[in-house]
UniProtKB/TrEMBL annotation:
The active site is at E289, Y376. It is found in: Cytoplasm. GO terms for molecular function: aminopeptidase activity; epoxide hydrolase activity; leukotriene-A4 hydrolase activity; metallopeptidase activity; zinc ion binding. It is an enzyme of class 3 (hydrolase). Its cofactor is Zn(2+). It comes from Scleropages formosus. It comes from the Eukaryota. This is Leukotriene A-4 hydrolase. GO terms for cellular component: cytosol; nucleus. Residues 454-592 form the Peptidase M1 leukotriene A4 hydrolase/aminopeptidase C-terminal domain. Pathway: Lipid metabolism; leukotriene B4 biosynthesis.
Length: 599
């Protein structure tokens, strides 16, 4: 079995040029060299690029001819390299590409000092998933190909660089005394979408024997408190699925424009500041990213059409970690919330939309546009269904651990996963053959089986009192409010009374105030849906003061649907668009039917 298609080693020499020019919006690019592509069997090789300025290509020190192919609307431009010599079997070739990124690079967000907590220095972070690495590095930008890498990053000395790799020291830049060079090594093969870099005025705090938390100093102590349970989650995951192979597990809290809750970059998990609730109630996101260290990073989907192999298994493992640390009831409780997220997503996309298939066809589909909770929650529901069929969580976890051990360091497809499932459960083949495989994998809409536990009835909700709500934990209050979103819109008088009794506007936890698919609707969404005009300014404020897609996109959608405020929603988006992450801006623009001409 081919363990992975392996690019032998990539060396990334990166210079972050005069980030201070960002103050004027002149985004000086990265100047980089990439070395180390191994074992070509032909004289030509094609790499993925997007908005890169290629100045030179060399192979084993000899100049190589190159050409850029036709530009695709979202896939970018292929870089076609012609090697200047014949190859023999087993020959190693070092290909060096000298290039610069564009200010339009979709993998990079450059923040001005005003967009940071410290307000004094600029900030840079990358986000390569799913197919954005090609705008930062010419590469084979597919999860099918894995590689190790070594990086040297030169930055102004007042800034700190961190990457999704293990640090390998730092030193003054010998060519410029005003700069520092940071070195990093990633010895475990990874796909391109997991390459990550952050540059800013960063500080760190130890939160465990193999973990630090990084952020601007204004948030670092708060983040250290919030994520203090990281080591216990790591140990629990190791008990479930085996050793953690990545060495370091650090967390960096990014500025508010980061579009996701977290990102599982090896050795350096990204986290949104909206997780800093003050009560550790949202640390489940970290459990999810920790789980990715095995499902997604170590065993990776072979293509984005099989993305559920990453996310479905990760949600399953995340909830098994919660089961070990909390209880089986808590795992079931989280599953109820996930089922509601799936219902919301299917309703949004449409019951017959093929993008709600567990294994969708993504030919000529932008992966960003296809992103949803389907691979997460439909994937989890499927694995939960199989768990029930084969004998319960302990039995099924035996399969999950064995699957990870077999396919570690490789990329797999759904068919390969299914074949191993039948091999592992060879004594239960008759049961597995009865599964509606086509209904689960290739049919849009909700799953063919609802295996999750029953949830509270409407009459149960009616019995809630002020004292009951005050006694609820943050996750419980979140789910209580989420249930209301699945009813008809509440009368305006009811929403006003809830604010009067519960004072929900004062709650800090973003998962309660601003969660949409799951809970953003819960309060502000409930208010806007009830057409409570007094809540509109607060809704606009939250939609623009942070950039997490889970909150910002649905909230803008709901404000746009409030006809009286439709144009204001468009105007507010255009006003704040430049401060948004490129992915967030593109998706919100699509929802608000904003044409490119408005840029």
């Amino acid at each position: 079995m081919e363990k992975y298609r392996h690019v032998d080693n990539i060396l990334i020499i990166t210079t972050i040029n005069n980030m201070k020019m960002l103050i004027k919006g002149l985004l000086n690019p990265l100047a980089c060299s990439v070395l180390g592509i191994k074992g070509y069997s032909t004289l030509q090789r094609t790499l993925d690029t997007k908005d890169l300025q290629i100045s030179k290509v060399a192979a084993n020190g000899q100049e190589a001819k190159f050409a850029l192919g036709a530009k695709h609307s979202f896939n970018g431009t292929p870089l076609e390299i012609s090697l200047p010599f014949e190859l023999s079997r087993g020959q190693h070739v070092i290909v060096e590409v000298t290039y610069e990124t564009s200010p339009r690079a979709s993998a990079l967000q450059w923040l001005t000092p005003a967009q940071t907590a410290g307000k004094k220095h600029p900030y840079l972070f990358s986000q390569c998933q799913a197919t954005h690495c090609r705008s930062m590095i010419p590469c084979q930008d597919t999860p099918m190909v894995k590689h190790t890498y070594y990086a040297q990053v030169s930055v102004p000395k007042e800034l700190v660089a961190v990457m999704g790799a293990v640090g390998d020291g730092q030193e003054p830049d010998p060519q410029d005394s005003s700069r520092t060079i940071y070195r990093f090594r990633q010895a475990v093969p990874i796909p391109s979408y997991l390459i990550a870099i952050v540059v800013g005025v960063l500080e760190s705090r130890d939160i465990g024997p193999r973990s630090k938390v990084w952020s601007e100093k204004e948030l670092v102590d708060q983040a250290a408190y919030e994520f203090a349970e990281t080591e216990s989650m790591l140990k629990t995951a190791e008990d479930l699925v085996g050793p953690y192979v990545w060495g370091q597990y650090d967390i960096v809290v990014l500025p508010p424009s980061f579009p996701y809750g977290g990102m599982e970059n090896p050795c350096l998990t990204y986290a949104t500041p909206t997780l800093l609730a003050g009560d550790r109630s949202l640390s489940g996101v970290i459990a999810h990213e920790i789980a990715h260290s095995w499902t997604g990073n170590l065993v990776t989907t072979k293509s984005w059409e099989h993305f559920w192999l990453n996310e479905g298994h990760t949600v399953y493992l995340e909830r098994m970690i919660a089961r070990a640390l909390e209880s089986e009831q808590y795992r079931q409780f989280k599953a109820i919330g996930g089922w509601k997220e799936l219902q919301d997503t299917v309703n949004l996309f449409g019951q017959s939309n093929p993008l709600t298939n567990l294994v969708p066809s993504l030919k000529e589909v932008d992966t960003d546009a296809a992103f949803s909770f389907v691979p997460y929650e439909k994937g989890f529901a499927f694995l939960y269904h199989l768990e029930e069929l084969v004998g319960g969580p302990e039995v099924f976890m035996g399969f999950v651990k064995s699957y990870i051990q077999l396919y570690a360091y490789s990329s797999v497809s759904t068919e390969e996963w299914k074949n191993y499932l039948f091999t592992y459960f060879k004594d239960k083949v008759d049961i597995l053959k009865k599964v509606d495989w086509d209904g689960w994998m290739n049919t849009p809409g909700m799953p063919p089986v609802h295996s999750l536990p029953s949830q509270a009835k409407e009459e149960d909700l009616a019995s809630f009192s002020d004292a009951d709500v005050k006694a609820l934990s943050s996750p419980q209050l979140t789910e209580f409010l989420a249930l209301l979103l699945h009813q008809n819109p509440l009368p305006l008088s009811h929403v006003k009374r809830m604010q009067e009794v519960y004072n929900l506007n004062s709650i800090k936890n973003c998962e309660i105030r601003f969660r949409v698919e799951m809970i953003l609707w819960v309060w502000l969404h409930l208010c806007v849906r009830a057409r409570w005009e007094e809540a509109v300014p607060l809704a606009f404020q939250m939609a623009t003061e942070q950039g997490r897609l889970k909150y910002t996109r649905p909230l803008f959608r709901e404000l746009y649907n409030f006809e009286k405020y439709r144009q204001e929603a468009v105007n507010m988006f255009l006003q704040h668009r430049a401060a948004m992450h490129p992915v967030t801006a593109a998706l919100v623009a699509r929802d608000l039917k904003v044409e490119q001409s408005h840029k």
